Hints:
Mean pLDDT: 88
Largest sheet: 7 strands, mixed
Amino acid sequence: MNRRILPFQGWRLLVFQAVVVFSLLVLVVRTGELQFVRGTQFIEDAEENRLQVSLIAAPRGAIYDRYRVPLAKNDPAYNVLITPADLPEEDAETLDVYNRLSALIDVPATRAAADAAGRTTERSIDEMVREGLGIAPFTPVVIATDVERTAAFRIMEQTQMMPGVEVQVASVREYPTGALTAHIIGYLGPIGPEEEQRLRELGYNPAFDRIGYAGIEAYMEDQLAGQRGTQTWVVDVAGQPLQLVEEQGFQAGESVQLTLDLELQKAAQDALTREINLVNKEANRVVTQQGVVIAMDPNNGEILAMVSWPSYDNTRFARNIDGDYYFNQFDDPLRPLVNHAISALYPPGSVWKLITSVGVVEEDVIDVNQPLFDPGRLVLPNAFAPFDEAAGQVFVCWKSDGHGEIALVDAIAQSCDVYFYQVGGGNPEVSTALLKEGGLGIFDLYRWATAFGIGSELGVELPGELAGRMPDSQWKRRNYGESWSTGDTYNAAFGQGYVTVSPLQLLFSSAAIINGGTLYEPHLVKNLQDANGNIIEEFQPEAIRTILKPTDGSEAVLLLQEDMLLNGPNSLACRCEEDSDTYDPALCTPDDYHSSTTNASGTGALETINYTVNVPFNYTFNGGVCDPLEYESINLNQDDEYTPPFAQTSTLELVRTGMRQAVTVGTASGADLTYVNVAGKTGTAEYCDDIAWAQGLCEAGSWPAHAWFVGYAPYENPEIAVIAFVYNGDEGSAVAAPIVNEVLDAYFKLKIQRGQQ
């Protein structure tokens, strides 16, 4: 009997219909997504695959000294490339090309050849080409970079016998002055993986391009590098160019002319190394191997010379990084790769008394003509045994029998430690009618040191500048869990204890006194020039702190650090630093930032002072200036809120008088020149770092000392200020002062030779 086959019925039919409808819906939705939602992306991807962008290198700008002597320039280099698709079809012929090329550039032809020669870690020509063939056969593969010129020319001559091989002319850096300017100029290096993506977006090619790794090369990278050009081609599926669609020419990098005087730089290095050798010779052992010399124009902040010793030879990094040499320098305990002028901190010793002196006069600590007695030592009583002198803390003067009765100007000239202990931290045995109780005190010393740039990056156009440290009373509690003591203030008053500075900071803080009241931004860059030598941008002197209070209605200039202390979370630094809790790009407006503060007038009444903040060229707000712990604690345990201090012209004149007398009758006697008047201040700073401790030199009462001297000339109308620092050099007057004297002498003799007025 035949059974009739019935169609789906009942629940089976409903399920089947639901599946069909659902499948259709999925197809419709998916088609809609591909067509409308992701259609634009697919078109862009297809267009990207169809178009290929080739980069055209831009010539890097040169670097010159102030008289256009080249310090960094470009030298031709030759790279060898192979286009896989252009190689012969026969394997034997391709191998012949590899062997010919290998003989000229010393790169193994095949993996077997590399292994046979014991060069197991090197990639062969064959391996590099095969990799390129699998990705884009019409894209040239870099086989070797910076090959010998003779080899490059022979390859060019044999191109008919080596199809697919080409020589590309590129450029590498040449550093004519080598180690003499290495810390200033720096060097180039390959683009690292952490920078690769960001720099690709800016047009860099990690396969060829190199970027600045130190010095001006790094700090002025954007200006020196220029802008790469591009060629946009239509390519087929194999990457073969078919049609040029668009071409944009490159923009050559800007050249940088520095304020540096190369001849003065050499004179400064010679003076420093000569003195270091003399110290070691007289001691008949190695006493010191490190030092710094910086010369500047105190009237505008231009740096004329900057020597950090020992140096390194950046010519070893000009064409390729010499790995062995680099790691030898990196591991050297003398740290030759570090620019000690800006990236190392030391106790400033008695040069610091210049800042203390300004604070003492301005805060009415003592009448400038009132002498204090220096018996050669000062005993600070023990709070728990005030009548037991043996239990007290003894502070001595460098002159063991003391200076007797001495007032401020003579105390500067003679560098009297006991005088500065008393005016810095007080002396209960002196009547408060003569000496302010507690002396200047750590709070006001902190205010004045901060105003002179200690604790701030000054903005020199070099990476790695350190800010130094002038602690306040809360700093010690935060870092050591201890209360600040009068003894700490005694030490801080003459540049010891917890105070640290870079040589650059100490010179520029002194220069603000020398020039009459302006802390200038340190400048190494004089101007930017185009490829034809035309000046594009001239760098002008920039005040980063006006030490004198404006009297003409103009705005004062304060440091970022001071603004942060005044305004806390609403300060410019806290608005602009990305890791700040109050970071706000909309409010980060350095060019338009203005604020105000109150300050005591000459009559004691409060007055409003409007101010702006200087932000250095290329500054990126990455210095960690915004510090809630600091702005929240600075006013703790103080009678008054923090206010930025301002000096009077007469105060600075008084300090300069002391500096002149230091040279004529004081600790720097002999630093004068017969044809020009010199003024200055010596410094001998005791220290105990890891090196001294390891050598057993940190003996109580007989610590080793660094030698400092800052000097300028002419005294009546300053043109040049110089600082010299010799690590473990001991007496500043004996070791550092002769270096400064020699540099000053070289400066004036060079002026005569050049016919300058």
